[in-house]
Amino acid sequence: MKKLFFFCALLVSVTLQSAPTWLGREAMLVQNFIGAHQLSITIDESSGIHLMSDDGKDVLAYVFNGKDGGYVVVSANESIVPVICYSETGVYEEGSPLDDIIKADLQWRVAHLADIPVEQRQ
User: Cα 92 to the chain's mean position, in Å?
Assistant: First the structure.
């Protein structure tokens, strides 16, 4: 009985420590992506999240900046491929040409979801 209780307590503590709480689903996607691709990005939980919106209408994606550079951009729409782009260096800049391209691409994808085969969305 003591062993069962110990393993249950251990499992709960490991689960709580491993789950970032700063943005839920998107944060978990980013952490899993970084781990799976062995990227050298450490996400800055306090200041690394920027919302990208289309003129304030809709949230299109979340940008997770790294502590020492690098970033990962994740789609806010669950019907689209989660990771839009990433870099192990630099800082994502709103208003940059890349920002404009990503916004235009995501707006097009959302507007044409019905035309995109399901296997290409994910």
Answer: 13
Q: How far is CA 93 from the centre of its chain?
A: 16
Distance from C-alpha of 88 to C-alpha of 45, rounded to nearest angstrom:
17
φ/ψ (deg, to 5) at 97: -60, -35
pLDDT band at 121 (very low <50, low <70, confident <90, very high): low
Boundaries of domain holding 51: 2-121
CB-based contacts of 70: which residues, under 8 Å, 6+ apart?
39, 40, 41, 86, 87, 88, 89, 90
Q: What mean pLDDT is reported for the chain?
A: 80
Closest to 30 in 3D by CA, of 73, 80, 78, 93: 73
pTM: predicted TM-score of the whole model, two decimal places? 0.73
What is the tens place of the pLDDT at every residue in 37-51? Answer: 999 999 877 666 777
